[in-house]
Amino acid sequence: MTETQKPVVSIIIPTRNRREKLREAVDSVLAQEGAGVEFDTEIIVVDDASTDDTPRVVPTWRGVRYIRLDDHKNTSAARNAGIAASRGDYLAFLDDDDLLLPCFARTLLSPGADVAYSSVITEGDGVRKPQRNTHHPSGDVFLDILRHNVFIHIAAILIRRQIVVETGCFDESLPAIEDHDLLLRIAHRHRFVFVPGPVAIYRQSSSGLWISTVSAGHHVALLRRVYEHAMSLHPLPAGTKAAVLDHVDVYSMEQWTAHMPPGEPEDHAAHILARLRECPRLTRYPRYRHVAAHVGRTLAVTRSVETAEAFAAEIHRAAGRTLQANRLLARVWIEIGIGLCLAGRWRSGCDAFFVAASRDPTQFLARLAKVCRERAHGANLG
Predict the structure, then answer these.
(1) What is the maximum span of the chain, computed from C-alpha positions, in angstroms?
(2) Measured between alpha carbons, how far apart are the two ends of the chain, in Å?
(3) Would residue 245 count as lying in a domain?
(4) φ and ψ of 347, to 5 deg
(5) Residue 366 half-sphere exposure toward CB, CA atoms < 13 A
(6) Whether residues 120 and 203 fall in one domain
(7) Quick one: 81 and 12 in the same domain?
């Protein structure tokens, strides 16, 4: 590409039976600032064998290249078909229910990097979620992604086409998190540049692929598969690999807790205990303690103190007699006590606090002080 040539950005949009949302996604690409002047865009819609009127309508849209798969496959196959047909210098990937902000291409082209990424605005079932202070590394980000579970949203990244092709494109055998798998493989050999954003809107749906995968519990094996494959590409000490997989387990449990499927609290408790029996090291992670405590509190409030007590006893058997196990049990009993007190069952709540204090008085006092501050702040706001 000479200095006088404009870069071409190919935006690949896989779709299936979502014509209305697809129209919004395409419009967001057509609204890119600087298009036709600073760069050119190529919009490729890949239809994964839709059964609605998508095949009839989309080919009539101006400025869109339309490709239809004869048989229903998956998002990875649709994206790979788009990559094969693309002519751009850079590739971007937009799901048919997400949106690019007008600044997307201009922002991510600005550093002239092989791989540039930014942040997204997240909407859950139409409600905008608060922005989190997420870690956004630049440079050699491979170990950052592994150690800190850095998830770069696929709609917020721009990659040179040659790199995607050389890396092997998307793994069509993965039913989900195929984008994370690709980015890990790219990060193994290429440097990333973070550019402040946001540059896209991620419209998360409770019926979407990721949440459905989490609710079914299938995400745990998928995440482990992706991370184990990534670590096979890079020699790491055994302890580091074990710590990475621990973090994967904790993240999996957080996701599962956040999107718990309809069911009984006892089922959730059984899941928590099963993971702890498989990996007692989880007691050392504050995030795991938070998840287990949440389940214990739910059991106490919706079932009985005896049920929560039995849950805590099973944790004790699985975790053993260690400092970290004591911290876990203290956190569980603290949340049980808070839940009971908020439900007006003060005596039982105070009994739970006594058990928590006997396990780890420092953690008990710190958590109680935090609750008091939060309630005082809420009263002041009121």
Answers:
(1) 77
(2) 60
(3) no
(4) -65, -50
(5) 7
(6) yes
(7) yes
> For 25, phi and psi rounded to 5 degrees?
-65, -45
The answer to whether the CB of 189 falls within 8 A of the CB of 90 is no
* H or E stretch covering 194: strand 193-194
Residue 380 in this model has a pLDDT that exceeds 50:
no
Q: 131 in a domain, yes or no? A: yes
Task: Name the average pLDDT for the chain.
Answer: 90
SS3 197: coil
Number of domains in the chain: 2
Alpha-carbon distance 131 to 128, whole Å? 9
> In this structure, is residue 156 part of a structural domain?
yes
Q: Are residues 22 and 118 in the same domain?
A: yes
pLDDT tens digits, one per residue of 319-337: 988 999 999 999 999 999 9
Give the C-alpha distances (Å, rounded to integers) separating 181 from 168, 191, 236. 11, 16, 18
Tell me, yes or no, whether 208 and 296 share the same domain: no
Report the alpha-carbon distance of residue 54 to residue 47 in Å, rounded. Answer: 8
pTM recorded for the entire structure: 0.81
Residue owning tokens 């999996």: 252
CATH number at residue 50: 3.90.550.10
pLDDT of residue 218: 82
> Which tokens in the block code for residue 96?
């048919």
Q: Is the dihedral of CA 289, 295, 296, 301 positive or negative?
A: positive
How many CA atoms within 13 Å lie on the side-chain side of 237?
A: 4
Domain that holds residue 376: 263-381
Q: Are residues 21 and 119 in the same domain?
A: yes
Same domain, 92 and 184: yes
Q: Quick check: 334 and 353 in contact, CB under 8 A?
A: yes
123 and 270 housed in the same domain: no
309 and 179, same structural domain?
no
Lowest-confidence region among 46-55, 221-230, 361-370:
361-370
Task: Identify the CA nearest to 195 among candidates 129, 127, 124, 101.
Answer: 101
